[in-house]
Amino acid sequence: MVELVLLRHGESTANFTNTYTGWSDVPLTVRGVAQAKAAGAALAATGIQFGHVHTSVLQRAIKTAYLVQDAIGQNWLPITKSWRLNERHYGALRGLNKARTRELFGPAQVAAWRRGFCDLPPLLATAQGGRRYAGFATGIVPRGESLKDASARLVPYWVDEIAPRLAAGDAQLVVAHGSTLRALIKYLEGIADADIDGVEVANAQPIVYELDARLNILNKTVLAAH
Questions:
Q1: Considering only the top CATH level, what class is 2-222?
Q2: For the segment 138-178, what is each residue's pLDDT rounded down to a tens digit?
């Protein structure tokens, strides 16, 4: 048996203001820092010894990963930061208040954009990257993504970077974002496209999977972090 832990970052400033964020690089709130520390304490109580940490290139996930490593006493672990684990890109919705978008576009349309698998948000006119993406292939920065699009960039990372380490018997910690973790959970659990809208991933609540040698799920536990 080997453990896989999925963790959404602590509360960010965009979570606090209820705005779409995506690839925008917003920090944790004071509450978010406390949540990350509490998640780390909950993981420390399990005694899981990780072999590797994976996170996005966005500070809210990176800071959460660092705080968890502090709490579990495993700061020495190798950590990989990948754009493939970034939050889903919300396109032209980025920076808008979610309640305001319901007024502008209607609750049904906003629900489809937020919770559906194939629905694309309004796209940006041009992709907006930056130095952190300069070393990658041209075109990786999207103008907007559906959850299906986010899954398409995420799953290769699972196949190439996470699954082989699990298969070798090393527990893995993945600290990422609500939508990308929903996409990974969909893939791991074989959830149908039509049913993904019912999957929620709360801030800073560790999800612990116990996997067999073939990486089949034996057990799933959501830890209470206080």
A1: alpha beta
A2: 788 999 999 999 999 999 999 999 999 999 999 999 999 99
**For the segment 19-71, what is each residue's pLDDT rounded down to a tens digit?**
999 999 999 999 999 999 999 999 999 999 999 999 999 999 999 999 999 99
- Which contiguous run of DSSP H or E holds residue 2? strand 2-8
For residues 73-93, average pLDDT: 96
What is the DSSP code (8-state) at residue 87?
P
Q: How far apart are CA 72 and CA 1, in angstroms?
A: 20
Going by C-alpha positions, the residue among 62, 70, 14 that lies closest to residue 38 is: 70
226 is catalytic: no
Annotated domain spans of the chain: 2-222
Residue of 9, 54, 89, 177 marked active site: 9
**Catalytic: which of 3, 11, 54, 87?**
87
Measured CA to CA, the distance from residue 161 to residue 80 in angstroms comes to 9
Spatial CB neighbours of 152, under 8 Å, sequence gap ≥ 6: none
List b or e across 199-210, with b for residues whose CB sees 16 or more CB atoms inside 10 angstroms: eebebbbbbbbe
Tokens of 26: 């917003």
Q: Examine the residue annotation and report whether 87 is marked as an active-site residue of this protein.
A: yes
Q: Which of 77, 20, 84 is nearest to 57 (CA)?
A: 84
